[in-house]
Design a protein that fits this description.
homodimer, 376 residues, alpha/beta, TIM Barrel, Lyase, Ornithine Decarboxylase, Chain A, domain 1, 2 domains, 30% helix, PLP-binding_barrel (chains A, B)
Chain lengths: 376, 376
């Protein structure tokens, strides 16, 4: 929590639950990433937090934007971002949305399948396209499965055919998994990707860009290596595999731009035990899985919590949200401890919740309003 | 899908994805439940679908309402439902919301812990309260875990203390788990609950009500026994355990009131394979886990799908939503087959999606609008 957030909460006493975003931290994160990986062009993955103040601040700093839908492109352009700084990075697009984006001036599109490439050839003729490839992504806390990307051989074929159909085969993207903790993953991925560059060059197709995706972490409960270490690992891998034939480099950070810029303040609604001999207290907050903390699904993301009673003796707890849904439990298997002195009505602060919270929150599940956010 | 829904879709051609609810089916479900379990008072669990047209129709039919929050109570009263037909059934309530509800005239409240009982004693003096007890709930497709309820011994103590503090210890509730498939669960639960009635009667406290919760199923992909069988099992268990000392009976159906009354129409956005040798096609719809199909979490609820190409040869598929989130996969482990002739742009209908869809949908994750609903 920054001083600015602390001051805001003290002065405004907003109703809980709410998220407070410190825009100066977003700016700091952007500038640091620019410094640590100067050759990379930053496309902010706006799905992480599309608050207009965040888009506007990053836009003014010169950021480009990775978007997932027509809705996101509209939000971005509403903040004065030019279409040439927008990538339509979702590999799953309706053809009418492709045509619309192309008409707006968007010229950079992702794909990972034949059907999507054909849509692009028809509805975004001449656009720059990049193919997402499947890379092995062990080590990520929010793993990516196989939903996106295709096998490298298929990607090579599709890029060749894209050229034949009048598209500009611009590059290749991959994603090592969100909140990736194993730095070697970028090296393994870039090894595969550089092979594709060489193989395609032999058939006369010169790819110009490699898109490293996201995956840079935010600091949750567990220690992560500093961003410097990540950027050095990426830098080393780029040099090792591309040498003096370095392509244009794109990164799509989301979580690492806004995660630690925000904090959710919540209130303890209830503390109880299920029986006289229950070892764990159940602590129910006024925010849960359906109010913005969706990334606690399978207890994947383990947020840091602070309370006004910190410092005293603690005991184990199960942490849950306020809805009547039994799936609305944040941490039951993961060991969490909270002060024994914690009381109903106390504020609990959920740290580093600037990414993947507001937009995940349900419209009005159980009659609870979506998570409110304040950008300061 | 009913004829009315079919006609609506044909005539209006609404943009996908959307949910269409046939209110006549809701009415039919309500009346049938009344007929099959005439001694039970129905408190519709409005969290399943709080569309104002649904609340209004059920309100006119005489239904009472089980609510989870101040927001739900407001929605309910906005449809002309009197406070004496409302139960504040969430065991996790802010004290200021209890006080507000009491002020509105709500007189029936749930609790399952000492802290909550104390809030009720302070802020809803004299109200009827019922204690939720933990029962074993194997057999449910959407299991309830231990989030709600307390051990029967604790419930007995708390009900006794509630009386001492000026509350009216009105009854006991339990929930066998949503989409419960094992009919014997009600018998096992009622055996425990009736013991509590007898034990408390010996100390001079006469409970008046047993609240059977929900758990009655909707018909998804797997066959379920007819509602008649469920109601007979409940009836038999009530008679076996309460005999001629039958208490007032409350049920809180949600899913079984609205589940089969609604249908989501979606569009195929993309069909692809990950490599030339991929055995399964990936079929991406324009609705997914964050657009209303949250109950596919862990592939729990398995919806029935229909397509305009049904009847021809089929092949195995992975089914996914349109967002850039890799968790947005509906069915990957569960075997789903779709026609080989299925094409991008085809409509896919997701049957029996009237419950737990609209309100679960995310505010605007990835820039996609929440699920639209039409009540007809």
């Amino acid at each position: 929590m920054t001083d600015r957030i602390r001051r805001f909460l003290r002065d405004k006493q907003p109703e809980t639950p709410c998220l407070v975003i410190d825009l100066d931290v977003v700016e700091f994160n952007y500038k640091r990433m620019r410094e640590l990986l100067p050759q990379a062009k930053i496309f902010y993955a706006m799905k992480a937090n599309p608050a207009q103040e965040v888009l506007s601040r990053l836009g003014k700093l010169g950021s480009s934007f990775d978007t997932a839908s027509r809705g996101e492109i509209e939000q971005c352009m509403a903040q004065g971002v030019d279409a040439n700084r927008i990538s339509f990075g979702n590999t799953i697009k309706k053809e009418r949305d492709i045509a619309w984006a192309f008409q707006q001036g968007v010229r950079l599109f992702a794909f990972d399948s034949e059907a999507e490439m054909l849509k692009l050839a028809r509805s975004a003729p001449g656009a720059r396209v990049f193919c997402r490839v499947l890379v092995d992504c062990g080590g990520a806390e929010w793993p990516l499965s196989r939903k996106f990307g295709c096998a490298p051989e298929m990607a090579r074929d599709l890029l060749r055919r894209a050229a034949e159909m009048g598209l500009e085969p611009y590059g290749v993207s991959f994603h090592v998994g969100s909140q990736q903790t194993d730095l070697e993953q970028w090296d393994r991925a870039l090894a595969q990707v550089s092979q594709m560059f060489y193989a395609l060059a032999e058939t006369g197709i010169d790819l110009k860009m490699v898109n490293l995706g996201g995956g840079f972490p935010a600091r949750y409960r567990a220690d992560v290596q500093p961003l410097e270490a990540y950027c050095e690992a990426v830098q080393r891998a780029l040099v090792r595999h591309f040498g003096n034939r370095m392509p244009e480099v794109i990164i799509e950070p989301g979580r690492s731009m806004v995660g630690d810029a925000g904090m959710i303040q919540s209130e303890v609604v209830l503390i109880s035990r299920k029986s006289a001999s229950d070892r764990k207290r159940w602590v129910y907050l006024d925010v849960g899985k359906f109010g913005g903390l969706a990334e606690t699904m399978d207890e994947s993301i383990k947020y840091r919590l602070t309370t006004p009673r910190d410092g005293g003796r603690t005991g184990p707890v199960v942490l849950a949200g306020p809805t009547c849904d039994s799936a609305d439990i944040l941490y039951e298997k993961t060991e969490y401890r909270l002060p024994l002195a914690l009381k109903v009505g106390d504020k609990v602060e959920i740290q580093a919740t600037g990414a993947y919270t507001t937009t995940y929150s349900a419209v009005s599940f159980n009659g609870f309003a979506p998570l409110k956010a304040y950008c300061i």
